Batch of 4 targets.
Target 1
Amino acid sequence: MLILLGLNHRTAPVDVRERLSISDSQLPATTRALRALAGVEGAALLSTCNRVEAIVSTQDEDVIGTIVEWLAERAGASRAELEKYLYIVRHGDVVRHLFRVAAGLDSMIVGEPQIGGQVRQAFVSAQELGTLDSLLAQLGDNTLRVAKKVRTDTGIGEHAVSVPYAAVELAKKIFGSLRGLHVLLLGAGEMGELTAEHLHAQQVRQVFVANRSHDRARELARRFDGEAVQFDSVAEHLTRCDIVIASTAAPHYVVAREQVERALAMRRQQNLFLIDLSVPRNIDPAVARLEGAYLYNVDDLQQVADGNRERRQQKAQEAEQIVQREVDNFRRRLVAQDAVPTILELQQRLESIRAAELEKCLRRLGPIDAEQRRAIEQFSSQLVNKILHYPILELKDASDEPQERESLRRTIRKIFGLR
Amino acid sequence: MSFLPTDPLYLALACYAVGTLAALTSLFSRDVRLQRAGLVLMIAGFVAHTIWIGTICTRTGHPPITNLPEATSFIAWTVFAVELALWIRYRVYAAVFFVYPLVLLLLTISAAVGEHFAVLDPQLRSNVFMAHLLLTTVGVAGLLIGVAFGLLAFIQDRSLKSKQRGRLWDWIPSLGVCKTLGYRALAIGFSIYTLGILCGVLWSYRTNAELMDLRVKQVGALIAWILFGVLLQQYISGAYRARRTVLLSAGGVVAILVAIVGIRG
């Protein structure tokens, strides 16, 4: 059976989560320690900044107590204290939980893409350590497949939900690839800095930084491998740059419509994306009316981010349906797999009865022609198949609750006289 | 059961019709799978369309561009081939909303007008004339693709300016890509179209001892050439204006349609 114990950003505060969190370097040893606990047959550990989860396969539900003790010891807390924050998931619910987690449906920001990679890392690492049994290995493969399917089919993680990312997304919508573009950062506001950082990560060609304090400009430019420029040379740089981020504390416009108009003429109408993150605004709003200039202020970007968040929620509903379908499929496959030995034994048992009774019957009948013999054989086979049909169906479609499944198996074995 | 030679035409038409319907429905249902189904149907139609064009070539012994139905069918085929190539390279989903109906419309005209397997007037059996037909047809296909991408660039520009996402937002590539593809298709289409017109002038001069017969199709072709020339000049000079581009493109397309319909005259 599958069991998952864990805590996440909803059930535990950060000071509890950090006590249990496992760094990349600690992961192998900790996973091995989990696997070594009495009763654990297969084990994997998932640790992110928002969750720590132990996933195990076992025959014995009492193992839960052992794992809780082990976790409490790691966290330096008492069992009772830790239990307040823990959730315990069993059987089919583990499958559903993991599918949802890997698809980003259980994340703080729905659809965030990092969690898929973290789940992959957890299972790949466990696979390499040899702590996965066949059940967990199957679960891992299916979890990653479902996460990919959800992302591909719904596009849940496609749109930015923060202001800096929304700016990057819009820049991509204007220019396509951002490689080779020039960025001008005006001022040293926090949001502007963050946006420039995201753009820099997209491999823009050069970041120019202009600030009233040239020292601060130099410091920022170093961070982006860029170039500090004088604040009064902004007009000149407008012609060279494709993206302008304004984030100064100036109480007036620092970029005028005429400057942008001139720059656009010099740029032969190549598009210019202006991001005004300052309040009061630093870029003349009249710039937005110029052909080839796209001006977004902080409210516009916030609106884009909010809109994307809403869209993610809508896509999450589609994603939940996919997850539910996949959980059902996985459960059916597992139950069917589990029932195979009993079904084979059942078929062999009835086949041997059929063969013995057929032999007796044919002896009693005396000489008969081949066609008559075939008809009797066919009749006996069909009879056995009909008798087996419902028991096999029940075994394949049994509950995912192991105890119920075992009870059904015992009953069928008893009725048909299997050992 | 026997097959008629025109079966591939009607099969292509049916596939294009259902494919276009699926693609247009996907615009409202926001279902990418439906759009993929539309693409598969369009490709099936394209295969049947190719067989149809091959049938014409085999039966008549000349390229399938000598009368109105043949020309519209060949333009539709070329437009879809270019669109397919661009889709494979750039995955431009939104272009299908303009290209599929255009392909369907052109092939419907071809099927409705009839005149399949027309015998060519001996006077028209000339390499220069064939080059004229082939180059203008391919050139027109390039120009129509350029117009489709110009239109996408316009829609994207309006969405970015108004800060309102339209239905096509997710399916249109970046403004930069739309403009680049539009410009390239226009530049290539215009160059080929110009060569085609020059071949036509040369053929006319050789046959009738005059540079151009000023009938509807020639006037339409000439106006289209001028409008697309101005449009291209705008792209090259950097004097690009979204609204003006759309107006010039619309004028160019109307002129081309007039020229195509004028083929019958």
Target 2
Amino acid sequence: MISILSAKFRLFLRNPWMVIIMSIVCIVMASVIGASSEKRIKVPVVSTLASHETNELLQSLNKSPSFRFELMEKSKMRTLVEEGKVEAGVELSNHDFTLIITSQTGNTFFLRQYVQKVYSEKEQANAIATQAHIPVEKAINIVNEAKEHPAFTVKTMNFRGKHAVTIDSQLQPIFGFSLFFVIYTVAFQVLQLLKEKREGVWNRMILSRLKKWEIYTGNLLYSFMIGYLQIVLIFSVFRFGLGIRFHGQFAELLVLLVPYVFSLVAFSMLLVGLVKNEQQFQALISLLAVSMAMIGGAYWPLEIVSSNVLLALSKIVPLTYGMELLKGAAVYGRSITELLYPMSILFFMGVVFMGIGINLVERKNG
Amino acid sequence: MLEAVELTKQFKQMKAVNRVNLYLEQGEIVGLLGPNGAGKSTTISMLSTLIPPSSGDVRFHQKSILKNPAMLRNVLGIVPQEIALYSDLSAKENLWFFGRIHRLSGVQLQKKVEEILELIGLTDRQNDLVKHFSGGMKRRLNIGAALLHEPKLLIMDEPTVGIDPQSRNYILETVKRLNEEKQMTVLYTSHYMEEVEFLCNRIYIMDKGCIIASGTTAEIKNILSAEHTVEIKVEKLNESFLHALRTQPVVRHIAIQDRVITMLSPKEVNVFRLLFQLAEQTDTVLTSIEMKTPTLEDVFLHLTGRALRD
């Protein structure tokens, strides 16, 4: 089995481009679609402060999940507000700010509160720095550290109904496209099995000292590893390259990918058992991958689908459960124990697909 | 050593192999000869335990291997018709892989790989990727991959298809050497008569799934001891000349290739006079007429009415 794995990885290193290109396309598409579904409210900003102070303040302001502050010329800001293209503008000065609005709305109320909060924190840090004769940056660090280890914490909980829906427009395309593209990667690795059969390498292995289970395990484990590595790579680019925090569930997500990738390997094995040649496999996987992505909620969240037929179909697609696992952990904050149901469905699918697939392949050999 | 008893393989409605009986003794080279689609590959797939027969038995040292194929597999080397190699690996890496799946490792594997590279003449190209090899080099490596575990029995399925004469000779010489030096038993399938004549001690001729003749080369050629092979070259093929030939009771089994007509006729008949007569009647210009001792090709023609490469 080790000999198969080592040969396969050597072959992969000789020609890794398919996996790399798939990963790049996935990252680009998820980024573009994630960025285009930006939900933060744009707030134009003008400043009378020095540029470094303005930048520091903007950095603090832009930590908001609801508002996106954008520096511009005063005249441009006024035009935007006057024409009603934005609800409000902010004029930053040293110890205070001015909100420029045409009418009072709910958003302007929250905006005022938020900017006020950022200014208070800045003033607090300045006061500590002056009192303790330390630089402002050090004072900010002390405040942040104190916040991370508070004397006591207040935990807030709320009731959420069974049908309560949260859609994270940034994570949805990342999860969706990753799970979609990996179908191709895994399928094309498993497809090598058909190629090896056609070329006679498979027969050489059958006639060798290897046990049949070793041949299957070597081939399928390799396909699993390549598929899994691809998603880890994509998630890592988003986590460490683009700063997407996955709501602090990065490690859990990597664990939750295991049953999904396993079910894909098994699904591909089933297809190998069903088709007669590589061309048929390629045609079938292209069709099925896109269908699974649509039905399973990779392109759009299943939460917005109302058709009972589509929802019923989604129950037989591994991608549905893959999305359920990832969103369950990252968006809904569910623990691994709470996600045992979709995990076990994926394992069950995997075992059934694999069993039928291997059986069909063996029958063909006879 | 290896024996096929009433071996039959049926694919749906088609009987690819029909009640084939053959045997191989230790240390001999046996040829399995037949045209494309004769059932040679299916027969060797069954003999090598890759596919189970529909009926019949395969025995290795008198024991059936249908239930326990490992007994044969451990001493069997197979050279498939396809190039069963990883084209994105080098020659050396391929041999390492095929050695490791036969549980060779360390110094033993390294030595064996070097020895095989030497044997197949690819030592200086060992680090090149197989996809950059010529057809002949790929075929040689295809053979090398079957020899790593020192098999006692080597089954070769048309190992010289589509290669240049130089590589072909190299392969034939290598097979002969393996047989002579290592007493390796070889089952060699081919549709090239001259290869089988050169290599094999005994021959089985197959057509349409059945063995139609068997024996040593001399014994098989004896089938035609009462006949001549006549090769007629004409300036231009003429349908009426061919028709006239076909209607002659003394002319048997006509095969045509380009402007060459090959036919069989009894030794006691003087065909020259007949041929000149027919040529004159049908306005055909004869370039040459040659009487030949029968070859295996002629035997095949005699037995089936078709040329081997039809």
Target 3
Amino acid sequence: MHEKSEKFVLKSFHIGATLLVLLGAMTMLLPYIWMALTALKTPSEAFSMVPTFLPEAPQFHNFRRVLTEFPFWRAVSNTMIVELSVISVGTIVSALAAFSFAKLRMPYKKTLLLMLLSSMMVPYATVMLPQYRAFQALGMVDTLWPIILPGLFGNAAMMFFLIQYMRGIPDVLIESAKIDGASYLGIFVRIIIPLSKPALAAQVIFWFVGIWNDYFAPSIYLTSPRVQTLQVLIASLNSTYASGTNFPLLMAAATLSSIPMILIFLFFQRYFLSTVILSGVKE
Amino acid sequence: MRSASTLYRLEKRWSLVFIALPVIGFFTFTISAMVFSFWFSLTDFNPVRMETRYVGLENFRRLFADALFRQAVFNTFFLLISVPIGMFFGLLLSVYLQQKGAKNYALRLLYYLPAVSSVVAINIIFRYLFNGEFGLLNHLLNIDVQWLGTGRWPIKFAIIIRNVWAAMGVAMVLYLAGLNNIPASYYEAADIDGASIFQKFFMITVPLVRPISFFLIVTGIIAGMQNFADAQLLANGNPQGITVVYYIWVRGIDANRYGVASAASILLGAIIMLMTYVQFRRSSWVEVR
């Protein structure tokens, strides 16, 4: 009897948990669905006192209007300029430094490494004003330079992760290359890079998503439409359109800007879900 | 054939060449910027005025006299409640979705989605959902809360809800990695002893994922203290919802009051650096699969 009632409790508990998780899943999905549905509505539908779920007549032309009436493609290309320049140069710089820390004999190695890693401790808000002042003095405010330039010097988090990974590469490979007369740069290009490909790929994907969604620094520096990245453009449309003039257009722009990241996430889902890159775990 | 000591010298030289750019970047963008931040906080520097005077701790005195700053500090700390709440839901989710299978995998993907979504898009949608007149949330729950109004609490809870919504999935993924490391035999032994499902959860699961909880709470607090987008986009600068970083931005970049803003940024930096230091000390930053 006791056994039976316990089973019943467990079973109803499981059903309750399932319902909660599914309700949670709907809550997760709802904002995205609501964004896409609102993008297809008319302005008056979007601001009706009794929200309707489906648009009466889907306004597909809202998407075309976003692409033609706003500097949308300009913003995409600005974002891609930042992505490509920062990631290409920044990854090489980070990987080279990681190779040096992981595999080469270096004076004051520990001190230098701790010094570079300590930059991760400093919040952006603490260095924001002097950086802004400096870029202002250089005439670089309202250009892409303040967004690109710091990234060209590498990324401490990426470097740290690559050091961990490269430590696993056998020293024998490096020693034998040295005997064959390879230069250090040659070892980096021919041995380290090919063997670090999975780690580099994961880091590049994360960085790509991070730059695409980056908002704080770009919003400070990029004020004119000519230089705005996608996120800054959408935020500026928000301040123009949120009051109601054409809210569905804003939602259409937000939808379009989200689609590439959702696709990347679905395509590289394993990188995001099964490998937790950095997590401090110590008993 | 070069001698061993020549090779060693060569290696040392190249090793330094390879880290030169990150080191230069560190001194340019971090160290010198911090020194200037410190200097700004002790002067009345203003980019549109020529002369600059040393004012001692005057900026810090003004900072604490500024009601907006005190409010921003209170808000920033209050909003951190979302960190443990998000962790709690994340842990429950990880326990429920622990078993392999297509359905669970799809649900994991769904819960993680906000982590790759832009804060701009998310905040614009949530501002719309929370709208007091035509927002979906009030309509679905049949309530009448002015989430975005000037009331003391509604906007704070709106920001907390939005952050719990976004943070659950990240906590879930980390906890899933932690659950993988708990031997099944622990639960089997508890079953033999007749432990209930709650006992197993609180006596085995919770204590054994503690290192992950510690990591999540510290990184969550560090990220929460740097929140800017919620204050600007969801709260739209509403004093009841602004954060310290928003305060630094609005006083510094917007109003050219570098002294007061830098004083705030120095205090924020000190707190965050201390927390990160604690995190570094506690953890070995290992890779978990």
Target 4
Amino acid sequence: MKGLSLEVRVGLLVLTALVLLGGFVFMLGGIDFGEGYTVFVDFNNPGNIKPGAPVNVGNVHIGRVQNIEYRGGRMDPATGRSALIRVEVRLDAEYGNTIHDDAMFYVTSQSLLGEQNMAVDPGNPEHPRLAPGSIVAGVDPPRMDLALALAYELLDSISQLMREHREEISQFISGAAHIVAALDRTLAEHPDALGNMLEDLEQATHEANLLLHSARGTLEGPEVRRSLRNLDHSLASVAHQVDPLLADARSITHKVDEGLDAFGPEERRSLSSALRRASSIAERADSTLSDAQAITTHIREGHGTVGALLMDEEIYDDIQEMLRDLKHNPWKLFWRE
Amino acid sequence: MTEASATLVDSGPSALGRLMAPVSAGVNDIAGLFRLLGRTLTLISQGKREQGALLEQMYIIGNRSLVFMCITMGFIGAIITFQSAVQSQRLLPDLTMLGATFIKLLVRDMAASLGAMPLATRVGAGIAAEIGSMVVTDQVDALRMCAADPVDYLVVPRFIAATIMGTAVLIIAGAVAILSGMVIANGVFDVNFHTYLNFSMVTLGDVGLGVTKMVAFCAAIAIISAQRGLSTFGGSEGVGTATTRAVVGSSFAIIVLNFFISGLGYFFVPS
């Protein structure tokens, strides 16, 4: 350096600074000398991605976000799809053959707090390559801001609820604490009872298991299977017969309805009057039958002339002897000794 | 009113005058700075340069300051990276964005503002001491007697040299700060070199804003130091005072200019 002139030394320093500045600008990626092509990705929520953000496959840089256009959700006739945001992406030409038309474009970040970038899943190699100028639908990132807002609202509601019902909640907690304390005391005072209870419970569980096992054995037995088969058959028959029966019933009901509809008001009045008369006649017949029954009973008990005539054996014998005598001596009908 | 009291009243400035004296001096000082800046820019626009003097000043201001500035900014970069990483780890053990955020901060602001401070002590003090010595030894008056403009002869070469070479030195020193930060991040916190050298957060606007600040700060250092040197009086003690005033004035100007340029950058180059 000592042999260099003043001009060279100063010039070297300025040149170094200019090279550093130029290299820095070049590294920022604002200037791209490589060949590439442009595709468009539609999002409804592209997160916090910005123009200049890298586009990666895995961790390999394959392009850069050029522009972000707000479309306002209007329909694009070319795609038949409405999108809020359209992101213009420039992909390096050397990767063009590896990005296919079913590729997925999504927004992600380098780390938890990192700058957001666009990641690409290249798609199925059997599909054709993604053509320059294509418009594809991007995968929207999860709305953490929305989730946080909803969580905030929920927490706010809980907080308000607790504020408004502070006394009830306090009483509830106090009661629960009392119950726990009482339970603890009880358990401490009766440790044997708890042991017995647990043993009983274990025994009951064991027996329930046995019962279930045996019930399963019974249910899976041939009789139950046969009964179930018969029941199934019967139900099938019933199901088969139900439809015609229902059709008949429906037909009868229909006919009855038609018959009833045929009656006019005059006929209904006559029918009502006839029914009333029939009812009266039936009452009277019932009364007559009661009287006849009383007379019959009276006769059967041998009361009265007819009763005595029919039920008294002596009178019957006398009449029989008298008729025999008349048969042998008819003149007694006209002549009295 | 007695004669004595009347004498007292008439002998000194009023209370308001005493109160306003520093303000008035400050206003005059600033006005003097702007007059000198205007005169310097006018002379530069006229294009009359003595190449040898300019080259010598560029070498003194630039090359001679380079090692000092690189060492200083190297340490500053290492310290800021270390402290940022330590504080970040308290919140989240994720240092993938350490380099990206540090480079963004450095490019947009700190390479210029933090770098200009040591540059003011090195270059500003030198300019003020040199011109101040010439003033107290009557060399400036001799120039005037020879019909030479001291501003054209002394201030213009230093202004051009400081603006160009100061900016160049700050760019190189900024790069050194990035490298030192990268070494610390890798050596202490196991951050990969590629992960650290992440320029995704830096935009061309950030670079433009940073370079604008560097040019403005270096120009301010040259003008303020030259003005302090030209206003030197009182022998060697005055030279010392002028040097101190040059460093203090330059540092203050860097901070104030940083505030205003950052404010403009907030609107025109949002981060």
